[in-house]
Amino acid sequence: MADGTLFIGTRRYSSWSLRGWLAVQMAGLDVEITTFPLAGGATPEVKARTPAGFVPYLEHQGARIWDSLSIGEYCAEFAPGLWPEDRILRALLRSASAEMHSGFLPLRRTYPTIMGAVASPQARDAAANDEATADIARICALWAELLVATGGPYLNGAEAGIADAMFAPVATRIRTWGLDATDVAQGYIAAIHDHPLVKRWFAEAEAEPADWRREHYETRLG
Ligand SMILES: N[C@@H](CCC(=O)N[C@@H](CS)C(=O)NCC(=O)O)C(=O)O
Question: Does the C-beta of 102 come closer than 6 Å to ligand 1?
């Protein structure tokens, strides 16, 4: 019997779920996965089954952990290598992860997560705005700084960690929407898409029932 359950939302749309799921998988926690098809906000099952009304939510060996960054921190207690060993690098990656967690709203609103989809150039250009473009520029600069600091190819260093879990969905957005990014950022985006866990998430997203798709997201792809 598994040690608990990770509750997530539709893989195709739920960027926060990917963060929590990656952390749990990277730490090797033995949990069952329960997936709620998201309604596009205030999904009744999510409201009923989770403390804050959001996924991801983890129940593990008596602990209840909600919110992606808390799940990441919890997972790192089991697998300390999910943060760098060096205090100064750890502080850098924690700050970047917190910045991702609380920021980049224009980017998130402008270019929604639709895993594995490709937006038309017309849809991308119609959605574009200065605030979202500034978010991308900040993310590219941040990734460059972290990759130099830890040596890459992941933000965490040789092996992916919590910072990569936090930024992986952004990497998928940049690809889905065909956004301009620096060569360094494109290299990181490729590394994220080549990661076996990310590949597994995409495959599982593709296998989700067709009636879990939501028109108000899909039509934004153009
Ligand atoms: N700050 C939260 C955000 C979680 C969040 O917004 N999750 C969305 C799905 S990506 C959700 O559960 N929305 C409720 C719903 O769609 O019913 C975290 O880091 O986990």
Answer: no
